[in-house]
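Re: the request from the purification team.
They wanted to know what the chain is likely to look like in 3D before they choose a buffer screen. I agreed to run a prediction and write the result into the notebook, where they can find it.
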Amino acid sequence: MQDLKNDYYNLKKTEFFKQFNEFNTILKKLISLRYGESFADKVTYEIKNEYETIYEEIPYIGGENNPLTSDLVSATMDLAFYLVLKKYGKKLEDIGEIAYKTSEEIFSIHPEAADLATNQKYIPFIKISAQLSGKREYPQDWVYSFLDGNDDFDYGLDFTECGICKLFHKYDADEFIPYLCAMDIIMSDTAKAGLHRTQTLAEEGNKCDFRYKEGRNTKVSNTVIKPKKIIKPNGI
């Protein structure tokens, strides 16, 4: 298992760090708006160092054979950001809002990143992956089931274990997870995926109940992000 992890993450390091550098560049702009350029210069350097450390600890959950590997790696970028700003005593709400706005910018630049939710060619892969997750081959992976569609939705996913929750708990970062859950709003709006979700594991639900129906309005229950929140310059 360790060899598989090392082989995979070493092979993908250039690609994942390229994604991180873009993420950190957007972060720097938004942190500067909130806290000033000097602070932004300082912490984005620290965020990079934190990410490099966390990257070495990302659990292996199947690599390219698991569609959620990219979600886990992406979440580590937000985790590094959270850990550094939390160290400086910044408010959770402010950290979460900056992370959310960063995700909005990334999806605006790379709308294809949301394609997995609606492209029918991926459905068989998602279905098989859901079945495999139930075998719990990788302890730090998600566990979920696939639901065939009906008149109300095209297809659904019920998550009973979350890889991000497991990873963030290790770093005592549980309070930040609902902000990542809220980012599914951006994904759904970008892909016009029509996600409806009434609960998440991170917000005291007994599962995360994803229901997709292409073209309808997104309706996601969350406790942290309200529509059209604006970051105010230098607001602390």
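For the purification team: Residues 192 and 215 are 5 Å apart (CA to CA).
Please add any questions underneath this entry.
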